[in-house]
Design goal:
This protein has a two-stranded antiparallel sheet. The chain has 9 helices and 2 strands, in the order H-H-H-H-E-H-H-H-E-H-H. The longest helix is centred in the first third of the chain and has 25 residues. The radius of gyration is 20 Å and the shape is globular. The chain is 73% helix and 3% strand. Helix 2 packs across helix 6, helix 4 packs antiparallel against helix 9 and helix 6 packs antiparallel against helix 7. By secondary structure, the chain is mainly alpha-helical.
Length: 190
């Protein structure tokens, strides 16, 4: 047998991350829907600072994800490959996300959940909006990739790398801080 063919990864090993991603995506969508974050009124309530359901769900997801991914990394089950970032990328991404969120009242994750609930506004406005925004970005990308997207480049730096500490030195206090914030939000009745 040819050595090159023998050393190639099989299709099954290449699909495993996709299968796990699909599984956790479905699970996350299920919890978004059960938590009420796919309902327009709940999302608008969050934007008006009257209903903090979405914030509580997202902060809980951040803590769960942070602990989970870094636990898997410490066990050697995954390798992280942070993408390079810049202020320009954050501005363009924030504008695209923010305009869609403000106009329709859904973010990309909640649009998918709202479509699953059968909400026509999410299906028509949301999916069309996502396709339009992605198409606009793709059309403009050749013109902006070496301009605004490179402005304020900060590379692949992470907070633990910046502070030159072990990841858990950042994760544990941050998780505790988020837990305290969630407790405060809940005890304040928000």
């Amino acid at each position: 047998m040819n050595k090159d063919i023998k050393d190639r990864p099989t299709k099954q090993t290449n699909r495993r991350p996709l299968i796990w991603g699909l599984f956790f995506g479905i699970l996350f969508g299920f919890f978004l829907q059960k938590g009420g974050a796919t309902k327009y009124d709940v999302i608008v309530g969050q934007l008006l600072l009257e209903d903090f359901t979405v914030l509580k769900i997202m902060l809980s997801a951040v803590v769960t994800g942070m602990i989970g991914i870094y636990f898997m990394k410490s066990m050697g089950w995954v390798k992280l490959h942070p993408k390079s970032g810049s202020a320009g990328m954050n501005i363009i991404g924030g504008l695209l996300f923010g305009v869609g969120f403000a106009v329709l009242g859904y973010c990309p994750g909640t649009i998918a959940g709202a479509v699953g609930n059968g909400y026509l506004d999410a299906l028509v406005g949301g999916i069309v909006g996502i396709l339009f925004g992605a198409g606009l970005f793709a059309a403009l990308y050749p013109k902006i990739k070496d301009g605004i997207l490179k402005k304020g480049n900060f590379g692949t730096i992470t907070l633990p790398k910046l502070l030159k500490v072990n990841e858990w030195v950042v994760i544990i206090p941050l998780c505790l801080l988020i837990a305290l914030l969630l407790y405060w939000i809940e005890s304040a009745g928000l």
